[in-house]
Protein: protein acetyllysine N-acetyltransferase
Amino acid sequence: MNAKRPLIAVLTGAGISTDSGIPDYRGPNGLWQRDPKAQELVTIGPYLADPDVRRRSWQLRKEVGAVGAEPNAGHLALVELERSGLPMRVLTQNVDGLHRRSGLPERKVLELHGTADRVQCVRCRLRTPMAEALARVDAGEPDPACLACGGVLKPCTVMFGEVLDERVLADAAAIAKACDLFLAVGTLLQVHPAAGLARVAVEHGARLIVVNADPTPYDDEAAEVIREPISQALPALVARITAGEFSAPA
Structure:
């Protein structure tokens, strides 16, 4: 009798994208550790109230370079997992869009914190490509306003001080409850409510595997903790999964 195929949920954080040239934020060498004041650049109150914060925020977006980043071996490993035919969904805390650009079908990716590849006017809600806004910054506009109504532009991300979309969070919780195998990849599991999805999965009987360079609050509950670099560890883990090492409960 064939083993039952596991339903797989993969929660990804900033660590999966560092090999694509996008720095993490909360790790020991992350942006918030190097410059604690940088957090206000992605906090909704100061961002809306202070033009100088917005100008510095636009410069940060240019420097981070997420728009031009390319998927790495970690992202591509998840594409291979999806193409294996195993039922899987990616729940990502990242806003860089690299899971979609790697070739994963959009329906398989739930972007918990939104996406940085588009901007939205806070007044008229018009959405336009981030690349167009950054081109205006390059051309000399330090704080580009909405071309339709003159309102403030912000990335289509959930900033500090904003709440996650309730429908997105409900979908993520349903996936965590239903999965047999929950991979936490490149995340310190400290940003809630996304981090709490690991708890939901474990409480509903899923096997938890943590792939992260630094300790997380969930390591003691994990069936396995992998400290190797993600671009090496995730392809190897996916190979084990597709080989049938992790079957679902009968």
